[in-house]
Design a protein that fits this description.
Shape: globular
Number of strands: 12
CATH superfamily of the largest domain: Aldolase class I
Bound molecules: iron/sulfur cluster
Radius of gyration: 22 Å
Number of domains: 2
CATH architecture of the largest domain: Alpha-Beta Barrel
Strand order of the largest sheet: 5-6-7-8-9-10-11-12
Length: 309
């Protein structure tokens, strides 16, 4: 620091340069709507800072950082896990879910994280699949969306799908909120009609969606994905889940449903809602049950539509 003739402070070239660098550093650490150090991200993903910078531009969101994200590890979610003694196996390419839905039953909100360095995912999958009998079905992305924005660059989900196809594994379910799934239509087709693709969309109102699912794509993107997947001959299910009073309109969802797409309704489980203030008012589970039954009665029973109890 030097001083001008009038006694005011003047920054030297060097300090101006270091200030500029600090500003650039600060800009560079804005990752997925949150301030995160590049080195931390590169450590988490086991990759170079240059790759992180490329991904950051893809993941960068100008939206306010969702207030409901939690970043501590969730021990209930694993890369490959069996559900129930005679149940299926869940495969979760990522261990935190970027969409950060306030109602997440897996309580898995947070910035996307991977289990290990991307280069080792295939060997980890092969090793863990040795314990899975060939006839047992697999469900992809039940605890964390397998298509967060970063998947476009990492391709972990695609790597896993290709390996499951190579091993002729029965894949019964893929659940997502992202249109990025359309990239993998070529692979998904090979799992046949038994593999249903569930696209979740609980409201057609984007304002509501931003409150409920701050990191998830807009309604139009998801409807477009349903249409493209259905046109490609895949079994597509429009999950109007969780059905939420005043936010989910069954008739509007039915009208927006692309032709041939099945529909599934399931009501909100209020005990999982992290921040009840995002709902228009505090509902008790009893009220939700009653309003859900009412909505079902009004809607009636229609072909290709299921209302879960
Ligand atoms: S997309 Fe599913 S797993 Fe991800 S936060 Fe939402 S409810 Fe949870």
């Amino acid at each position: 620091m030097t001083f001008r003739r009038d006694g005011t402070k003047q920054r030297s070239m060097q300090s101006r340069e270091s200030l500029r660098c600090r500003r650039e550093d600060r800009r560079a650490v804005v990752f997925a709507g949150q301030r995160t150090l590049t080195t931390e991200v590169s450590n988490a993903f086991g990759c170079s800072s240059a790759s992180v910078n490329r991904w950051k531009s893809a993941c960068f969101t100008t939206a306010e950082p969702p207030k409901t994200r939690r970043d501590e590890p969730n021990r209930l979610v694993q890369f490959l896990q069996k559900i129930g003694p005679n149940g299926s196996w869940l495969v979760n390419p990522y261990w935190k879910c970027y969409h950060s839905c306030v109602y997440c039953v897996a309580h898995n909100q947070g910035n996307t994280r991977v289990w290990s360095a991307p280069q080792t995912v295939l060997s980890t999958l092969r090793r863990q699949l040795r314990d899975v009998p060939l006839e047992e079905s697999l469900l992809l992305g039940a605890c964390a969306d397998p298509y967060p924005p970063i998947e476009e660059h990492l391709g972990l989900t695609r790597t896993i799908l290709l390996e499951l196809r190579r091993q002729k594994r029965p894949l019964d379910y893929v659940g997502t909120k992202s249109g990025l799934i359309c990239r993998d239509i070529d692979v998904l087709r090979d799992f046949g009609a038994q593999c249903s693709i569930h696209i979740s969309l609980c409201s057609l109102d984007d304002r509501m969606l931003r409150r409920l699912e701050p990191g998830a794509p807009a309604a139009a993107d998801r409807l477009d994905a349903m249409q493209r997947l259905s046109q490609a001959g895949l079994t597509v299910v429009y999950d109007c889940i969780p059905w939420t009073p005043t936010m989910s309109d069954a008739e509007a969802a039915w009208a927006a449903r692309p032709p041939g797409v099945r529909m599934l309704f399931s009501k909100l489980d209020v005990k999982h809602v992290l921040d009840p203030s995002v709902l228009k008012r505090n509902y008790t589970q009893k009220e939700i049950d009653r309003l859900y039954a009412q909505a079902h009665r009004r809607f009636g029973d229609r072909e290709l539509v299921e209302w879960e109890q």
